[in-house]
Amino acid sequence: MRSSTIFLQIVIVLIGIGALALMLWEPHLEGRNAHATLFQVYFNDPFLAYAYIASISFFAALYQAFKLLGYARQDRIFSQASVKALRTIKFCAMAIVGFVALGEIFILFTDSDDRAGGVAIGLVIAFGSSVIAATATVFERILQDAVDKIGSDLTA
After folding, report:
1. Is residue 146 a contact partner of residue 103, using CB atoms and an 8 Å limit?
2. How many structural domains is the chain composed of?
3. pLDDT tens profile 95-126
């Protein structure tokens, strides 16, 4: 089990590095940024700044998942810290859904080149985040019940 959790932690780190690289590289590929300076790319686009702020929730959830796997590796999965990590992952996923909803409103009410593409990507991200939030909620409740049962067995 130890090697599996280490492997999953490495995967989480690689996902984080890949997401960060994509976030820094992708704005240079947009047609309107073809001849723009770095300042124009990163500081003249309020939607890009909004996307970077919204991504904080994603990276916080990745960090909590990394910590949760560390607890599993240390055989501390049935602890209050694990429950707290799952709760944080749930809140991060719900925050991402909220950020995406506001982003969709921004896309729909501004002059956008490709509304359909932006809305479709937003729906996929919101759906995935909703699934993660629901899963984290279920696991949080199961783990909290187990922690409570272990705690009551120790005091009895």
Report:
1. no
2. 1
3. 999 999 999 988 888 876 778 888 899 999 99
